[in-house]
Amino acid sequence: MYSAISKSAPLLARGPSFSTTAMASISRITVIGGGQMGSGIAQVAATHKHEVTLVDVSQEALDRGKAYMAKSLKRVAKKKHAEDEAAQSQFVAEIMSRVSLSTKPQEAVSRADLVIEAIVENLKVKQDLFAQLSKAAPQQAILASNTSSLPIGKIAELLDSQRKQRFIGLHFFNPVPQMKLVEVVRTKEADQEVVDSAVAWVKAIGKAPAVCKDTPGFIVNRLLLPYMMEAIRLLERDVASAQDIDTAMKLGAGYPMGPFELCDYVGLDTIKFIVDGWHKDGEGLKGNPLFASSTKLDELVKQGRLGVKSGKGFYDY
Ligand code: 3HC
């Protein structure tokens, strides 16, 4: 039964209740995947005094991840220590000193309290990675995936039951240093103590947790993707221009970005990948017209107009 919660309760207190028996503190984090999400997660954890190891397949990929972090930290440092360049550099250096880089996943997880995977959205690749990591990570470690659309339970499928109890989703949002939310995704097998520990850790890194079940899109993407697809369909039906739809949602609904700006920001290939997957065989979503393919989206992706990252999407950059 639904029970109402007072609107006056502070944001963090309004979240799902959690016990105080969470596992001893999480201090050593290994992040697998040095892309924008992985490096953002590493940056935020290091900012909050955690010892972080960032893992990727090559030194080149790690250097790119390190550059993302340095750029984002410089932005924060400029605001924190305006006019004082030495203090800015020291701020960045101090945080970066807590981040180690590695191309050896098994070695990198051997002392981890928490492992967060943020690699390519491919189920088989993720399953194989975790099968490999589970041979090396401490038994008490929490294993987590930052997937935005794949079922957490499926990613953990090759693991034994003990590991499954310590496996959850930790879904961050782009840009990670700026977006406050982390969805903590609870599978049927996950221990409550693991969920509680993850919730406590999310708060410890200055974010706000929202706990949810392992269903397609969790909370945010389950609501955001239909919104984006409906916006694209408005455009296909020539109801209004992309600019006017964006203006309408920014000024009429208070969104920081309009749906087309957001589509370009997230990546049109990513959006297509998510909706196609759900339409084909998402649990409870198969054949749902909300996620049916869109000619406009398919065309843009085919032309390589993927959004901000490729310089062109619904808009040119
Ligand atoms: N690192 C550090 N700080 C950053 C940053 C970064 N990468 N990106 C932005 N910021 C900071 C800026 O320094 C600035 O800080 P200030 O307000 O203290 O000066 C603040 O964020 C605002 O940035 P800007 O002034 O450059 O630009 P905007 O005001 O336009 O904000 C935005 C940019 C934060 C991206 C804002 O437009 C926004 O919130 N957009 C919506 C983003 C969103 O919806 N993200 C979720 C996408 S869905 C997702 O990720 C799920 C996935 O699974 C698909």
UniProtKB/TrEMBL annotation:
Bilayer-crossing regions: none
Compartments it resides in: Mitochondrion matrix
Catalytic activity field: a (3S)-3-hydroxyacyl-CoA + NAD(+) = a 3-oxoacyl-CoA + NADH + H(+)
Keywords: Fatty acid metabolism, Lipid metabolism, Mitochondrion, NAD, Oxidoreductase
Site label Important for catalytic activity, positions: 171
Recorded metabolic or biological pathway in which this protein acts: Lipid metabolism; fatty acid beta-oxidation
Its EC number(s): 1.1.1.35
Primary location group: mitochondrion
Entries under InterPro entries matching the protein: 3-OHacyl-CoA_DH (IPR022694), 3-OHacyl-CoA_DH_CS (IPR006180), 3-OHacyl-CoA_DH_NAD-bd (IPR006176), 3HC_DH_C (IPR006108), 6-PGluconate_DH-like_C_sf (IPR008927), 6PGD_dom2 (IPR013328), Mito_3-hydroxyacyl-CoA_DH (IPR052242), NAD(P)-bd_dom_sf (IPR036291)
Keyword Zinc belongs to the record: no
Chain positions recorded as NAD(+) binding sites: 33-38, 56, 121, 126, 148, 174, 309
Keyword Protein biosynthesis applies: no
Matches recorded under PROSITE patterns: 3HCDH
GO MF annotations, alphabetized: (3S)-3-hydroxyacyl-CoA dehydrogenase (NAD+) activity; NAD+ binding
Residue ranges of domain 3-hydroxyacyl-CoA dehydrogenase C-terminal in the record: 217-317
Swiss-Prot/TrEMBL GO biological process terms: fatty acid beta-oxidation
One CC-aspect GO term: mitochondrial matrix
Pfam families to which the protein is assigned, alphabetical: 3HCDH (PF00725), 3HCDH_N (PF02737)
Highest taxon above the source species: Eukaryota
Residues reported in the UniProt entry to bind CoA: 72, 79, 148
Residue ranges occupied by any 3-hydroxyacyl-CoA dehydrogenase NAD binding domain in the UniProt entry: 29-215
Family: Belongs to the 3-hydroxyacyl-CoA dehydrogenase family.
Protein's name in the database: 3-hydroxyacyl-CoA dehydrogenase
Organism of this sequence: Coemansia spiralis
Source species taxonomy: Eukaryota, Fungi, Fungi incertae sedis, Zoopagomycota, Kickxellomycotina
